[in-house]
Amino acid sequence: MLSKQKIFTLGFQHVLAMYAGAVVVPLIIGGALKLTQAQMAYLIAADLFTCGLATLIQVLGTRYIGIKLPVVLGCTFTAVGPIIAIASTTNIPTAYGAIIVAGIFVALAAPLFGKLLRFFPTVVIGSVVTIIGLSLIPVAMNNVAGGQGSPDFGQPRNLLLALLTLAIILIVNRFFSGFVRAISVLIGLAVGTTVAYFLGMVNFGAVSSASAISIVQPFYFGAPQFNLAAIVTMIIVCIIGMVESTGTYFALSKVTGKELKEQDIVGGLRAEGLAIVLGGLFNAFPYTSFSQNVGLVSLTGVKSRDVMFGAGFIMILLGLLPKLAALTTVIPNPVLGGAMVAMFGMVVASGITILSHVDLRQNENLLIAACSIAVGLGSSAVPQMFDHLPETLKMLCTNGIVTGSVTAVLLNLLLMHSKGTVSSVEMAAQTTGQEV
């Protein structure tokens, strides 16, 4: 049983792992929509508050809602472009109206999506988890170099700082055990940020300018408005999120040793639908399970849901106390990047571990894994190949997790069904770990 102090520390480590991803979305959207500083501050506070609330709903769970796995919810990057486009062509309340309706759609469509569980045998799960990890590696490397678009991108001091952070994490994992090993990422971030401070790379300006208290309120930007085209666009975004989250659930199930059943997936997606509705009500964003934190669970070996309760409460607190939230933004990108290398690499390793239980000497399995990983990695690495497609189709095709997952499922149906070796019942049993 973890003490309250350990739960707080481990939860804070998870918050730091996902914080950059959680904050960058409101920063990008707010900047593109030319929001005022006060509006930007609210957007970040509302996002953190809702992230925490959504995480608690997902982790706590009931009989019908929640995956009950150590998962953290954050705003999906897939929604950035569509939200900007909708708000720019109509207005911000229309974007939030679309988010609310899309959240309701996710909650209602969850049982139907749960039926797809039987199309995810071990070879598909392993391929999807591997694709998730590989798609995150460029994010880590951009941070290692100083952050995409930063003026000092690729400077030697950035690379050395990232290397130092990674080295600290590895040293702690090698020479320590128990709780100290579990907070290796937190220790690496602390040491890296301290060194960066003496190099003049830490700026506390955001802390001093942030307000002390912020109360999140519904419909901050006005009552929601509804537009059919905007709603359809946001539903597509959320369907992509459902695919990503299902892959994250499978990755976590392998890390924690919990067998997933259809009702687990349905409960998890219902919780995400509710979280998306809350995002629309509080003028935040659509939410999905963050795969960043899967690597941290795998790296630390701490699988307790209590830690995610701690992370959820910390995010709610940060949403109410912007000055405290701003304190976590002082961590330089190279330091975050060094930690991300270890965490995201663990996701890739988890996928490879799952694939190791598949008979890859069987040509069909080999083709499923090879083609799905290649398509998923290729479409995310070279998204410009889809520039001439319609915007909606382009949004789907440039998401490597979606293209890779769809490829894996379709190839499994085509190759294994045509061979007649794997029935739908057997596929379901493979996924849930039950005997036929």
Attribute tags:
single chain; 436 residues; mainly alpha; two-stranded antiparallel ribbon; 72% helix; disordered C terminus
Put the structure in a nutshell.
With 436 residues, this protein is mostly helical. The chain has helices at 4-32, 37-60, 80-89, 92-114, 122-144, 156-175, 178-182, 184-198, 205-209, 228-256, 262-281, 292-300, 305-320, 322-327, 333-355, 363-381, 391-397, 400-419, 424-432, and strands at residues 73-75, 287-289.
What is the helical fraction, as a range of percent?
A: over 70%
For the biggest β-sheet, the strand order reads: 1-2
The end-to-end distance, rounded to whole angstroms, is 36 Å
Overall 3D shape: globular
State the total count of DSSP E strands.
Answer: 2
N-to-C series of helices and strands: HHEHHHHHHHHHEHHHHHHHH
- Please state the CA-atom Rg, rounded to the nearest Å: 21 Å
Low-confidence regions:
420-436
Estimate the strand proportion: under 5%
Work out the helix count.
19
Largest sheet: 2 strands, antiparallel
Which structural class do the helices and strands define? Answer: mainly alpha
